Fold:
Amino acid sequence: MSYSDTIPLHPSSQSDIDEIENLIHIQQSSVLPARPPSPPRASIPVSSTPSFIPSNLPPPAPPKPTPAPSTTFNVPSVAAPNPRPATTTGGGGAAASGFGSGPNTLTEPVWDTIKRDLSRIVSNLKLVVFPNPFREDPGKALRDWDLWGPFFFIVFLGLTLSWSASVKKSEVFAVAFALLAAGAIILTLNVLLLGGHIIFFQSLSLLGYCLFPLDIGALICMIKDNVIIKLVVVAVTLAWSSWAAYPFMSTAVNPRRKALALYPVFLMYVSVGFLIIAIN
Structure:
């Protein structure tokens, strides 16, 4: 068999060859033509030395200074409120708040402070010792309580008893002052331990103001040195002091414990009465 002889292909092989040739023709026909080259860009000449073109425009005018905005504001005027008058109870000097006067008293003159304190003492004295509609309510009677009045009455009673004594005046004053001061504290603690509804210093103030009748009795006994006069004066002033202290101490505790609260108070005033009679 020579090379010039042709060997017939198998029908399947011939079809494969035809299919491959068809694919090659299809790929060649689908290839896009090449993109034409872009034209060259124009080059911008760059000079090494900068050159400036003079302008014919006039120079700009300088800016005008603007005035600063005013910082003043128109504040509307507000009328000052009318001062609220201090409400009084009974005698007209006790404030309703119970914490003293409202305005600031640090910069006021000394004489104004003394007048205000004296006015408060007189007002509280009227509420406690003399008949008034607020005696049955301790909270209303001494809402503006103070300790200057009780202190003054204790010191005055001690001085009166010491002046009445012929010997050992200083000892008489010390005994009287200690008896009254310690007695008021003990009586107040007694009321509080019995479940009384009263402020500690308010009770001290009440007991101190109730000494005012005994002060008057001691002063009268110092002037009139007579045993009969002393007995009568002490009996009257003792009853007056007990009457003044009764409504406050009785309403502060339970009605079942009223006697336990009133008996020590009466006993202290009786002891003061005996001192007034005994000192000669």
Remarks:
- The beta strands are 88-89, 94-95.
- The first helix runs from residue 11 to 30.
